[in-house]
Amino acid sequence: SVHNHQLLLFRSEPNDLSSWSYTVLDSLQRLGTVKNSGGSNQFRETFDFMDMINPNDSVLHLVYGVSDLYGFNDISPKIRRTFFYTRIVIDSLGSSTYTPYHFDFVIPRDGQLRNNFSITSTDDQHIGIAYYDLKNAAVAIKFSADAGQSWSTDTLLEVNIQSPLQTASFGDSLYVLTYDAQKDFQILSSRSRLHAQWQHRPASIQEKRGRAFHSRVQRIEPGRDDIEMVFTEEWRDQLFYGKRTDGNWTYEGVDVAGKKVKEAAMTQNGQGQACAAYVFQATEELKFACKTPGGWQSQLVDGNSKARDIDLAARADSLFLVYFDLATGSLKYARSAGGSQWLVQTLDDSSPIVGLDPKLHIDAQGNKHLAYSDAINQRLKYAFQPPGGAWQLSSITEAFAYQPEQIELLTDSLNRPVLAFRNAFSNQIVLAEQKDGGWQLQVAREGGVSFLGNPFRLLLDAKDRPWIVYNFSDVFDEIRLTRRDAQGSWQDVSIIGNTGRIANSFDFHLVEKDFYIIGKKNARGDQGLAMLYAFEGVTTDLLAPSPGALQAWKLYPNPASSVVNISLELEAATPLHLSLYDLQGRQLAAEALPGLFAPGARQLGWQLPRLQPGMYLLRLQGKGFDAVKKLLIH
Questions:
Q1: What is the per-residue pLDDT across 89-124, written as a single tens digit (0 to 9) for each?
Q2: Measured between alpha carbons, how far is 555 from 566 in angstroms, rounded to an integer?
Q3: Is-contact 243 226, C-beta < 8 A?
Q4: Are 532 and 540 in contact (CB under 8 A)?
Q5: For 379-424, what is each residue's pLDDT tens digit?
Q6: What is the set of domains in the chain, with CATH numbers?
Q7: Cβ partners under 8 Å of residue 573, min gap 6
């Protein structure tokens, strides 16, 4: 009761929930106003953040917080947060002579408590109170085995929480449920009264992977692609390596856990081994590791910088790293020098903050291309190094003309650099191409939506057409795909089937004609990793169909089981070829239908192989057309 500065307990009459009475359990009048050592008044606020449990019919255990305000400054008084335990004998409630038992934990004035308390007990003697110690950033618990007369203190774990905690007892074990705000996990801690060791495990039914993420796709043979990726796993606080071979995923840890991996990039060395570069933020170390037959072998690249925005590239037996040094505000470049030795040099320190978001690309002739931003002068910069030559630095954009972020860099079939960047000034995605001795810039996408293209990924197909997958933020985050057509206009291409809600962190791969989008899921309560696959997605035709193309076709029933019927309308006589693929691009069945099919409407029946339930792709090919539809098997 705020007005009366009292803590009240309401109790219903037996078997009558319409009749209630209350008892004053505590009051600020009991605590009184005291003088501190400096002579100024110390005032107590009202009671708050209460929790209560009744383990049996005889007692109630109660915990609640009280704030002390003291000093003469009314604008910013000093505050001490303490809390009380109160033990209530139920049968004595209502008696004018009964006074509940109170225990003040007397938190020192330099102590800081979050306003979260939770109490539990197994009987009227054994009590546990969990609370958050803000000063030491730890969850702690008070124990009593003598009905609250004396207490001991134990620390469960050091964690940053921003929400209430809960504690409970079951059997001889005590449980505490907390929320780790940094890892975005609920943590369940448990300890038996017979054992002093606390056990901790995640309680959230969700995944937290991919804050740092990078992937590769490699075609081994037609219909078979190997996928590799490195990603962070928040609960274990470790970098992991995953590989998919023949549809099966395997995972293993890279280096040690507990170092707060900040950045991650990967490539393949001259021996075909997966390699990763990453940053241990806990120790501010830039590390590098390769997967060998004996396991992952790691080495230190730079322990004197605060590496951020790393990118990794390889050519033959050489490995190269570029990164922004947060400590000096400069762009740095490192190359392997054999064994575990790396040669590190400052590539650009012409501005107090230069080298953000560097992207390194090595073309077919061994030329190195590097793009990065100068944050102070808001300029997009470019560096070029021919084999055996020196780095040549230049600017792509004039100062303050753009605000470049999220840079992407590739080279076309003539080894000319093609860049894309997000212009934060006007919320645009801009393409930059080096042609005729200069740079040509074109806006690919723009709009009023916040953070358009944060992030995005750039690809060039075999015809040097640029494709961009970009993040689009509206009510929800989603990914969109756009491509430049033969007339130089940008056209959106639909992305369907994104049930994993990939957004915010992703990679875009083109393997011959097939597209992969691999990234972090953005669904509430499910933020692991997912993959989208588009069979021959690069053949998406943005122009009118050519003469002789298939006019219309459909599948029925869909879902199907053993046989699928195909209804089609042909414009010209053509042979027909059917094939079936899974979502990983593996061909499961194929048949060249006999004869030549005349123009007009046709009905076909096709016997399906025995398949597991799920989604598949049915491909229909003929003279002048190549079409794919989804087929669901039940």
A1: 988 887 878 889 999 888 776 666 666 789 999 888
A2: 5
A3: yes
A4: no
A5: 999 999 999 999 999 999 998 889 999 999 999 999 999 999 999 8
A6: 6-202 (2.120.10.10), 206-349 (2.120.10.10), 552-633 (2.60.40.1930)
A7: 596, 597, 598, 599, 623
